[in-house]
Amino acid sequence: MAIAKAERLMNLALCLLGTRRPLSKRELRESIEAYLEAGSDDSFNRMFERDKDDLRELGLVIETVENLDGEVGYLARRDSNRLPPITLDAEEAAALGLAAKVWQQARLAGAASGALQKLRAAGLPEDVDPYGSHGALEPHIPVHEAAFEPLMLACRDRRPVVFDYRKANAAHPGTRHVEPWALECWRGHWYLAGFDRDRGAERVFRLSRITGKVRARAGRYTAEVPDVVTVRETVAGWAGEITDRSALIRLRAGAGYPLRAKAVSVRELGGGWDELEIPYGHGLDAWLVEFGPDVVVVEPAELRADVIDRLRSVAKG
């Protein structure tokens, strides 16, 4: 069985690398004997999808192209699947080894190990052990969200996705159609940056707020992918960490310690309330809503109005 699958994968890879135009599923099925022997269309589709994912896991860059008739085709361009000669010194190899160790607790462990093997094949010196140096360091990035892997693959393959997303101030999730660009971990949380087709603009999504499955969609991106995607800067700005002004709030005594940690000044008002001056940036209204009746916004007026609107939306459900 293992030999048959290896032969099938090799034949599929040769077909995709040898074509000058995208090949449809029908054409690939007619070209590979193992696919012709598939009992039904469903059986073939499952086999082909598994094989395609296995080849991508092995490092083959497979493009998905939709023609004018809406038919989806596949090909693997040679220039996208050729590594130039690689020379790494001991320090660079050690850095790659540490990067691979980051993913040992996640499903990317196999891909990380496979990447190092590919680097050896492309010229990494045999006497350099990427895992041997700096053995005392054991970096880990937690990946608990089920949405991480399908979004990571969608970013890699440039595939649009659809998922249900619950905003911080919403009682129910809404459907989002997104062209994913990049994933990044910031302060223990994973975020996706991409183009939101429904809103026609760049958006950042926190993976822990994605509900249900991430569904891939066929077709090309409609927006240009930027050369640099500033996920952390965007999230920091939305979290109010990039600010140019202040807000004045009243906070119940003994409550809201995260707000107190950011306060520029604190003044006791008596009657169980304190007055705080805090930095005011994008997203502060959503954060203040989380503290419910323990917070009252004094100024500016637009922040107070935004907080009231969000509270009313939550109350309506």
> How do the strands line up in the largest sheet?
7-6-5-4-8
Q: How helix-rich are the residues, as a percent range?
A: 25-40%
Number of strands: 12
Content-based structural category? alpha+beta
Compact description:
By secondary structure, this protein is of the alpha+beta class.
Descriptors:
single chain; four-stranded antiparallel beta sheet; 11 helices; elongated
Characterization of this structure:
It contains eleven helices and twelve strands. The relative contact order is 0.07. The radius of gyration is 25 Å and the shape is elongated. Helix 1 packs across helix 4 (41-57). The protein has helices spanning 2-18, 25-31, 33-36, 41-57, 90-102, 109-121, 148-157, 231-238, 257-262, 284-289, 301-316; strands at 23-24, 63-66, 72-75, 161-165, 174-186, 189-196, 201-206, 210-216, 245-252, 265-270, 273-280, 295-299. The N and C termini lie far apart (54 Å). The strands form three sheets. The chain has a five-stranded antiparallel β-sheet with strand order 7-6-5-4-8. The model has no long low-confidence stretch (mean pLDDT 80). Helices cover 37% and strands 24% of the residues. By secondary structure, it is α+β, with helices and mostly antiparallel strands.
